[in-house]
Please model this.
Amino acid sequence: MKLLYSRTSPFSRKVRACAAVLGIKQRIALVEVNSTQSPRELTGTNPLGKVPTLITADGFAIFDSPVICEYLNDSSEDMPIIPASGAPRWLCLRLQAIGDGLMDAASVRRQLLVVGGLEADHPLPERQRATVMRTLDVLERERPSLHIDVGVLSIACGLGYLDFRFAGEDWRAEHPRLAEWHAAISEHDCMRSTAHGS
Ligand SMILES: N[C@@H](CCC(=O)N[C@@H](CS)C(=O)NCC(=O)O)C(=O)O
Model:
């Protein structure tokens, strides 16, 4: 298998962390691409031009990150990272959606701020910031478990992305329980080995 990824993409980090937990990272060749330049290698396999994109051993392209994680989960004999059925499954997938949404809002906000050109009081960046803050408030109340699954990894990667791109904004002050949880989960090998920049 081949994973088209970027070191700065939190979605790519989530997929890499899942592969590490599932014990299959050695079966995946990492190919770094710059999705902002729409390289042919990426757009030729994924019309959405986004990372992560997984190319299976059969040459079939799989995206987006929740689908890749399902595929990897099915490809491993190890403990699953997605419960098969019932309430545990839906709680895990709901958590993944929250983490993915956190990454979406934070990365859209960053793009808006980097591109610039908007009036200072333009509502779009503020709307994304408010989404991030609401999400952090919910996670502070619901503090996730430390048992690793795809939902937990998505939240951990979302918080890691805030630290990576918005280092000057202290989300921990208002979310101490979540901060404690993040410190604990960040000690896991799968998080250490996929830290942004690694
Ligand atoms: N929903 C997608 C989001 C992936 C995504 O937004 N990737 C960004 C990098 S973090 C990207 O490739 N953007 C390039 C573009 O939008 O053209 C997933 O879960 O994989």
